[in-house]
Amino acid sequence: MLRTGVGWFRLIAVAEAVSWAGLLLAMVLKYGFGFPEAVTVMGWIHGLVFTAYVVVSLVVYGPLRWSFRVLVLALIASVPPFGSVVFERWALRRGLLTTPEPLGPTSLSRLVGALRALN
User: Fold this and answer.
1) How many domains does the chain have?
2) Where would you find the membrane-spanning parts of this chain (predicted)?
3) Chain segment 90-115, per-residue pLDDT in tens
C-alpha cells in the first residue's frame, strides 16, 4: 500500500481524520478537565499530519491527473473534521485514486523539460 503515492495519500487522509479526533478529545480534556497539555501535544501532532496531507495532495495531483478543482476539493477537505476521509472515499468511488495510463507529459514534466532546456 505504501509503495505508491495513492497508498500514501489514503494513509495520510485517514491519519489526518484520526488526528482531528485526537485534537477534539484533547480539547475536551483541556476545557472540561483542566488538562491543557493534551491540546499542546495533539495540536502539534495534528499540525504535522495536516501538513503531510497537504503535501501528499500536492504530490499526487500531477501523477493522478486530477483537475485543479479536485485538488482544491482535497485541500478544502482537510479543514473540517474528518473531511479528508470523506474526500478519500469520494475520490475512490469516482476512480480518482487510480493511476491512469500514460497520456503524455504532465505539467510537472513539461516544466522540468523547459528548465533543462534553459541550462
Assistant:
1) 1
2) 6-29, 41-60, 66-87
3) 999 999 988 766 656 666 677 777 88
